[in-house]
Amino acid sequence: VDNDRRDLDMNSKNVDAEKMTRFIRMNELRLVTEYNPVTAIGVMQSSLQLHLLLITDKMSPKHPEQMHRYQAAAELFKGKILFILVDSNLKSNERIVSFFKLKKSQLPALAIFHTPDEEQDVLTLDEVSIEHVQDFCNHFLQ
Fold first, then answer.
1. Domain annotation covers residue 106
2. Which InterPro entries does the UniProt record give (predicted)?
3. FRET pair for 64, CA 20 to 30 Å: which of 75, 122, 125, 126?
């Protein structure tokens, strides 16, 4: 995942099917999945029921640093929340921006969505930081 190799110690005597399944599930997805027509089906069929969307302009000069921080935060919630990047410049993503009742002037923003009951929350940001993402996720999880 994300060009980072993770190994499960198969020589350990306490490895069972459940631990192996958990290892695979936690490492089968990228830390951050970019939402587009190709990945949409995989995102919707994910076993993770909490989705955190970073809705932002990928062409922004701040984008590389924002993504670095967003990926670092994703590591903290791996296996609990599916982290998704939504490029606000793509016409195909306009429905997502409007679904969360956001305007381009309010971006970047974080939107968290619980798929079973469609509960959601939105946080507009001046800056994407690990702390903002972590606080937002923890608040929603509580």
1. yes
2. Thioredoxin-like_sf (IPR036249)
3. 122
